[in-house]
Design brief:
mainly alpha
């Protein structure tokens, strides 16, 4: 899987993430006991991002320690700080009370120990911890037998999912254990060249076979909603989607969204829940509501790039 194809998968990820946050009945009770709600409940895209991260960092660290790991993490934090600062400021000017300004809360949000201002940002600190330690993680797992390494990572995942029952374990730093398995699974896909091997094997069949298998995978996820299999589901989606993209030569629109992925990730919940919720609630048609949130997030992402891109250039220098 190339870097460009990984970006395309991130494009799928951000579109699914917006769908998840809009229609998940745990976040929006009006979709409880509906087909759309069941789809939303099953659409958690976090393992997709973890698999892609593990895949990419395994490739990067094959020839030694990643020299850009610190700047990569700082780039994510800069995006988070700039966008969150803007929306928190607007929130305060609108006299909203959800953003409390005290030194402990501000510091906790700055380092992402807690993400009170923007809950979907909980992923940043665990992601950076895994990114910074990826070389040593994969060095250890390369010394283990393939299935032994995956089994150990899966046991850690099951343990962390059970520990989430305790409120103190909900701190962002502990979620590093929760995303550890899909991260290692991504590294395993890179180690075995599994995506390319499946692409070569699927090329022996008609495109309709791949589409049919993808539909079956999606149906299984719909009826088999459990966190125990979600990482395997997204691994299958990646394999099948990459093959379809290579077969059809498509994916340019997904690449566009993939390039806006980080910004839209930091923006979309402000649109869904905090700033524009009265507007989105006025729209009863679910398709129009989804398109509105995607559109607003995309436009704001392009606007924020005018501020962020010069900062990224300074960071590269």
């Amino acid at each position: 899987m190339t870097r460009e194809e990984s970006k395309m998968m991130q494009g799928i990820g951000i579109l699914v993430m917006i769908f998840y946050h809009l229609f998940n009945p745990q976040l929006n009770s009006s979709y409880r006991d509906t087909i759309l709600g069941h789809i939303g409940l099953a659409a958690n895209p976090v393992p997709l991002y973890c698999i892609l991260t593990g895949y990419g960092l395994y490739k990067v660290n094959q020839n030694g320690i990643d020299q850009h790991r610190w700047t990569r993490c700082l780039r994510i934090y800069i995006c988070y700080w700039v966008i969150t600062f803007f929306f928190v400021l607007v929130s305060l000017l609108m006299h909203q009370t959800r953003c409390t300004i005290t030194l402990p809360i501000v510091v906790a949000n700055l380092i992402d120990w807690k993400a009170d201002y923007y809950p979907p940002a909980w992923f940043i600190l665990p992601y950076c911890l895994l990114s910074l330690s990826a070389f040593w993680i994969f060095k250890i797992f390369d010394k283990l037998r393939f299935w032994h390494g995956l089994f150990i990572a899966y046991v850690i995942y099951i343990f962390s999912s059970r520990m989430n029952a305790f409120s103190w374990f909900g701190q962002n730093i502990f979620q590093t254990l929760y995303i550890f398995f899909p991260f290692v699974l991504g590294g395993a896909l890179a180690r075995t060249r599994f995506v390319d091997l499946c692409d070569a094997w699927l090329s022996k069949f008609s495109i309709y076979v791949t589409v049919g298998v993808l539909v079956i995978v999606l149906l299984l996820r719909y009826f088999l909603y459990t966190g125990a299999v979600v990482s395997f589901f997204w691994a299958a989606v990646i394999v099948l989607s990459v093959h379809l993209i290579r077969l059809t030569g498509g994916g340019k629109k997904l690449l566009f969204f993939g390039n806006q992925n980080l910004n839209m990730w930091m923006i979309h919940a402000w649109v869904c829940w905090y700033m524009f919720q009265p507007l989105t609630n006025m729209i009863e048609n679910s398709i129009l509501k989804y398109l509105l949130v995607v559109g607003l997030s995309l436009v704001l992402s392009i606007v924020f790039n005018m501020i962020l891109n010069p900062l990224y250039q300074l960071l590269r220098k």
